Amino acid sequence: MSYVLLLWGIFFINGVVAKAVCPGPPQVEFASVHPEKRLYEPGEEVSYVCQSGYIYASGTRRAVCTNAGRWTSVTLRCKLRTCVYPGLLHNGEIHHTELTYQSVISFSCNEGYILRGANSSQCNEKAEWTEELPVCEPVTCPFPPVPEFARIVFHLPRPGNVSIFGDVVRYACLPNYALIEHETVSCLANGNWSHIPECKDIRCPRPTGIENGFVSFNLDRLYHYMEKVSYGCMPNYVLDGPRESRCEKTGNWSIKPSCKAPCSISVKRAEVLYYGQRVKLQGMAERRIQHAEIMAFFCKDEEKKCGYPVPTQCMDGVLRIPECFKEYGRFSALFTTEASSMKQCDTVNSQQ
C-alpha cells in the first residue's frame, strides 16, 4: 500500500511541475524576441534581435524559461545606428543635429552658388544616407558687355565663354575718353554684372595762368581728358605745388601751383647762418632769400655770456626777424661783442 502511495505522490509532483510554464519573455527596448508566443515550457530558450535601425551594444541576447516558471536575466542593450558624416560640401554648408538612424541633414550653398542635387538626406536602417552629397556650382554670368569707346583690358575667359561668380573684368577707355564709375566690374550672385562703366569725351577749357608765373605752351583751345600743361615762375619766385596740371574727368583742371615771393632782409649788418655757413649780410650782393629758405640770427644769453642761433623761415615774402636779435651799427659794434662773436651756448635758450 505504501508503495502505491509513493508512486502516486511522484506522479502528482511531476504533474504540478509540468504545469510551471513561463509567460511571454521580458521586453527589451528596441529589440524583438524569437520565437514569440503566449506560453513557454521550462527549458525553452528565446533570443533577442535588435530592431531595424539599431545595433547590438552590450549584454546577453538569450533568455531561458526555468522550472520555476521564470526567465533568466536579460541584459541586452540596443543603440541607434549612426551614419558616417557625409563629407565636406565645398562652397556650402551641411546642417544637422544628429547623425543617427532616421536623422535628417540638409544642404545649402553659399551666396553665388547653386545647389545641384538633393537638398536633404536621411540616415536609413543600414546606416547609409538616402541621397548622395550634392554639389554647389558657381553662378555664371554671360560675356561682359563692352561700352562705347571702351575696351576690356582684363578678363579671365572660361569654357563656354562665360564667367563665374566673383570673376572680375577691368575696363579702360580709348584715348581722350574718361572712365565714369569704377574701372572693374564683378559677376554677381544674381548672374548679372555689377554697374557697367561709361566712357565720356571730356574737355577742359584753356587753363588760366598763375600770379607771378606762366603756363608753358598755353594754346587757345579745348583740352582733352588727361592732357597736361606745365607751370613756371618768374625769376626769384618759387613754385609751390605740382609743376603740372591735368585735365580731369570732371572737366576741370587739377590743382594748380602758386609762385611764392622771395623775402627781403631788413637787417643791414649782421653775421647769420645760411645753409650751415656763417655769412655777413653786409657782404651779400642782394639781401634776399627765397621762399621756404631758412636763415638763423644770433641772439645773446646775457646770463651765460654766450650766443645762440635762432632760425626763421621765409614764407611767401615775409621774413620775421627774431625778437631777441639786436642789430649793431658799424660804430657801436666797435665797443660791443656781438652775439655771433661770442662763444656758442651749450644749450639753446628758449627766450627770444
Task: Describe the secondary structure blueprint for this structure.
Elements: H1 2-18, E1 31-34, E2 45-50, E3 54-58, E4 62-64, E5 77-80, E6 92-95, E7 104-109, E8 113-116, E9 120-122, E10 135-138, E11 140-141, E12 150-154, E13 163-164, E14 168-173, E15 177-180, E16 184-186, E17 198-201, E18 203-204, E19 213-215, E20 223-224, E21 228-233, E22 238-240, E23 244-246, E24 258-260, E25 263-264, E26 271-274, E27 277-280, E28 288-289, E29 294-301, E30 306-313
Number of strands: 30
Q: How can the largest sheet be summarized?
A: 4 strands, antiparallel
Low-confidence stretches: 1-17, 348-352
Q: Mean of residue pLDDT?
A: 90
CATH fold name of the largest domain, please? Complement Module, domain 1
The name of the CATH superfamily of the largest domain reads Complement Module, domain 1
Per DSSP, the total helix count is: 1
Between the first and last Cα atoms, what is the distance in angstroms?
152 Å
Into which percent range does the helicity of residues fall?
A: under 10%
Total individual domains: 5
Keywords: Disulfide bond, Glycoprotein, Heparin-binding, Repeat, Secreted, Signal, Sushi
GO cellular component, one term: extracellular region
Function: Binds to various kinds of negatively charged substances such as heparin, phospholipids, and dextran sulfate. May prevent activation of the intrinsic blood coagulation cascade by binding to phospholipids on the surface of damaged cells.
Signal peptide: 1-18
